[in-house]
Amino acid sequence: MKKAIILVGAHHVGKSLTINQHLKPMLKISSDAHVFQLSGKTGFVLSQSAEEAERDVEVTVEKYADYDLLVLAARPYSNPESQLKLLRSLLQKASFVTTEIAILSTEEAPRKAKEIFA
Questions:
Q1: Who's near 45: CB < 8 A, 6+ residues apart?
Q2: Are the CB atoms for 84 and 8 separated by under 8 Å?
Q3: Which of 18, 77, 97, 106 is the most buried (most CB within 10 A)?
Q4: pTM for this prediction
């Protein structure tokens, strides 16, 4: 089963911090690495949201659809620029079971990283 975790939060609430400084060490990869191995599965992490990186969501999902695990970031549905609805839809079409984890502040980063890792 393919799984995707989407860390959802507004601009500057700690999505990249959570992924780069807290989650990646748990995955035993450096802060600038993207590919990881976990329980015999291969995963890919993108810490910057599609909205912030101005990344095409369709191209992104297509590019990483062969991975077993994905960790992505997105702006919340309430944000006018949010690509979250499209991202979820495309991931589900690519056979990923998706889970959204909301983050509201940088103080939550260590706890949210543990939640993603679990």
A1: 19, 23, 24, 27, 29, 33, 34, 36, 70, 71, 72
A2: yes
A3: 18
A4: 0.95
DSSP state of 66: T
**CB contact burial 36-62 (16+ within 10 A = b; e otherwise):** beeeeeebbbbbebbbbeebebeebbe
Amino acid at 13: V
Q: Which residue has the tokens 């060490």?
A: 25
14 dihedral zone (left: phi>0; alpha: psi -120 to 50; beta):
left
Q: Read out DSSP for 1-41?
A: -EEEEEEE--TTSSHHHIIIIIIHHHTT--TT--EEEETTE
| Tokens representing residue 46 in the block | 């993108």
pLDDT digits (tens, 9 = 90+) for 51-75: 999 999 999 999 999 999 999 999 9
Instruction: Name 3's bridge partners.
Output: 69, 97
Cβ(108)–Cβ(117) below 8 Å: no
